[in-house]
Write a structure and sequence with these properties.
682 residues; Immunoglobulin-like; seven-stranded mixed β-sheet; 1 helix; 1% helix
């Protein structure tokens, strides 16, 4: 029909598509064809010789056929089925956190209908408009724990994504082929969110029915991770400094729990998807399926206090935490072998949570609130220096002390206190700042009440009684980290009780000293060093500077004329050597003063005593000077001396002061004296 000049109508069964002329000189209407309704008309020109070719373009994924109709001639021609498969719904993140999907947080996604354009390139189908009802469901991986599906929010609907197509739908409003969709995981998981446009009819088949448009998801499958791995220590008082409550002893086992928790905006002020430092995420809602995906958690500690203390003392349990229920797991075999306050954080054992990147997985790690305080398990008490008992007099050739005379330390005993953990490791953090809780008042003594070095002479076999007047000791000044040393007080005073039954041979004292208890401000108790070489702090005998001697002060009786030069009365200090009293030539210490002497003159004033004083020199001093007054008779002198210079002069079991008699007006050759005999004083 080379002379055909008729008009034909072009159409499609899907009513989609546009037309253009490839070869032909006739007129196409509309021109250009932008209607996308699949319809156009062509008026042949005589020069076409009855032949024209057309280009058909369709952005819809239709299964259609093409029809040509010449209505004036009543001729209809149809082609075979033509299938267009280039339409798909693309789901991609449009959120500040990108693809970091966090359980408990609503994330914004972009849904776009993608088509292939006339040039063969893919782009957004801008003609996809209005509100469309899209099916939504999950395509879970084999690693997914099977928890609740995420909430998917469209224009006016909220839908929990089910596990199969047709289980739920959501209305989505498109403008220019694009729409916003909000997906909020309510639990952890690994899945792909699927969408399906099954009803809009944007693509149609030969019968004109809507062809479903499936979806693809950028970065699928997606991992919905916990916001954080929260760590909790049951029973923890949460001490923040050295004055806070006590949690455990160093080395003592305790329980730690880990929970995968949901997002809480209050813990993420900068919106970066990571809990901010100091946030208490333990009170967040749980991601109840955490741990059911097969992941396990390892814990590590960070030392918060004391500053610069020993931090590497945390035992992270024999195995990772792998047994979870309701999103929480725990173990009872954690311990911290030091003193102080720590924080504990959890991390995924294999470094990647459900295939998420290392960076995403590390964002789940957050420090726990303060855990502590940890104290020593016990204080090991070690005798560092047994000390030396001093002597009351050390001015002579040999230092000594009279029985009954007070004496003190030449060198005070020193005790070292070592804080230790349950496993006996030294807890060096205890030596820093206010974490050192030991005070001198927390150390009590077992003072000796007898000295086994000598027995009383009454035949009972009892040891000499040992007396003490003591003061609190002191802890040596120290810098942080330095050992703890406790010293007995230099003000301590000791003596042996002197009685008429303690006239004993000189002896080196051997009283047994010791500690009764050691406890710090936290009530941490003590234990003696089990491997002590020097001796036990519970019972030790100090060294001695010199012996203890039973001594007395002796006065000699004197006689002479009632006029003339003064009478001279010798005196000296003596001690019992086991056989007799001998001059104590080592005594160059004892003070003396005539003001301590009482003179009794039964027959009137016989003499005047010169006012003299001094110290003994090798046990003696210049004699007392008694100036006669011209009267005849006796003067009795009694020297008031301390108990250690008294004696049982009359063997009446009583210690008394020394006494002597000065006789005036009696001299050799006096006719009234028939017999003269000198006898010892007293």
């Amino acid at each position: 029909m080379t002379g055909y000049t008729g008009k034909i109508d072009l159409s499609t069964t899907s009513n989609h598509g546009t037309w253009s002329v490839n070869e032909g000189n006739g007129a196409l209407s509309p021109l250009p064809d932008n209607s996308d309704d699949g319809q156009a008309s062509y008026q042949f020109d005589l020069s076409d010789a009855g032949v024209a070719t057309f280009a058909f373009s369709n952005t819809h994924a239709d299964l259609l056929s093409i029809r040509g109709t010449d209505s004036s001639e009543g001729v209809v021609a149809s082609g075979g089925a033509v299938e267009f498969l280039e339409n798909i719904l693309r789901l991609s993140p449009n959120d500040l956190l990108g693809d970091d999907l966090i359980a408990g947080r609503a994330h914004q996604y972009d849904v776009s209908l993608i088509k292939r354009d006339d040039s063969g390139e893919c782009g957004v189908a801008t003609d996809y408009e209005g509100t469309h009802l899209l099916d939504v469901w999950l395509d879970r991986t084999s690693n997914d724990p099977g928890g609740a599906g995420p909430e998917v929010r469209g224009e006016n609907t909220l839908q929990e994504a089910g596990n199969e197509s047709g289980s739920g739908s959501v209305e989505v409003e498109f403008t220019g082929g694009q729409a916003d969709l909000f997906i909020k995981p309510v639990d952890v998981g690994e899945y792909t969110v699927r969408l399906l446009d099954a009803s809009s009819g944007y693509a149609r088949d030969l019968a004109g029915a809507a062809i479903p448009i499936p979806s693809t998801s950028t970065g699928s499958p997606w991992t919905a991770r916990p916001f954080a791995l929260a760590v909790n220590a049951p029973g923890n008082p949460g001490a923040t400094d050295a004055n806070g409550g006590v949690f455990r002893a160093a080395g003592e086992s305790f329980r730690l729990e880990v929970a995968g928790v949901l997002y809480d905006a209050a813990d993420d002020s900068d919106g970066d998807g990571q809990a901010e430092p100091g946030a208490n995420v333990w009170d967040n809602a749980r991601a109840v399926s955490f741990g059911q995906e097969g992941e396990s958690t390892v814990l590590k500690s960070t030392l918060l206090a004391p500053a610069y203390g020993e931090a590497d003392a945390f035992f992270p349990g024999a195995e990772p935490i792998a047994d979870y229920s309701g999103g929480i797991g725990g173990r009872d075999d954690y311990r911290f072998d030091e003193v102080g306050i720590i924080s504990v954080s959890g991390s995924i054992a294999d470094g990647s949570y459900l295939g998420a990147s290392i960076a995403r997985t590390e964002r789940m790690t957050v420090l726990s609130p303060d855990i502590g305080r940890f104290t020593p398990s016990y204080l090991e008490v070690r005798l560092f220096d047994e000390g030396t008992l001093g002597s009351a007099c050390s001015a002579g050739a040999l230092a000594f002390t009279y029985l009954g005379q007070p004496f003190s330390w030449q060198e005070t005993p020193t005790i070292r206190v070592i804080p230790r953990a349950v496993g006996s490791q030294e807890t060096t953090n205890y030596l820093i700042g206010d974490f050192m809780k030991l005070r001198a008042s927390g150390i009590t003594h077992a003072w000796p009440d007898e000295d086994p070095a000598a027995e009383v002479t009454d035949g009972s076999g009892a040891f000499l009684t040992f007396r003490f007047v003591t003061e609190d000791g002191s802890i040596e000044d120290r810098s942080d980290g330095a050992p703890i040393y406790y010293r007995y007080s230099v003000a301590d005073q000791f003596s042996h009780e002197k009685t008429a039954f303690t006239r004993v041979t000189p002896f080196d004292p051997k009283p047994v000293f010791g500690l009764e208890s050691v406890s710090d401000l936290d009530g941490v108790g003590w234990a003696a060093d089990p491997d002590a070489l020097l001796g036990s702090p519970e019972a030790f005998t100090p060294a001695t500077e010199g012996p203890v001697r039973y001594g007395r002060l002796e006065l000699e009786n004197v006689y002479g004329p009632e006029t003339g030069d003064p009478l001279l009365m010798p005196f000296r200090a003596t001690y019992w050597d086991g056989t007799r009293f001998v001059t104590n030539t080592d005594d160059s210490c004892s003070p003396w003063a005539t003001s301590d002497i009482t003179v009794t003159d039964p027959g009137g004033v016989m003499a005047e005593l010169a006012d003299l004083s001094g110290e003994l020199e090798q046990g003696t001093a210049a004699p007392l000077e008694l100036v006669p007054t011209g009267n005849r008779g006796e003067a009795i002198l009694e020297w008031d001396v301390p108990v250690w210079l008294q004696d049982d002069w009359n063997q009446d079991d009583t210690l008394v002061n020394p006494r002597a008699t000065a006789t005036f007006g009696v001299y050799r050759g006096n006719d009234r004296i028939i017999y003269w005999r000198e006898v010892p004083a007293n």
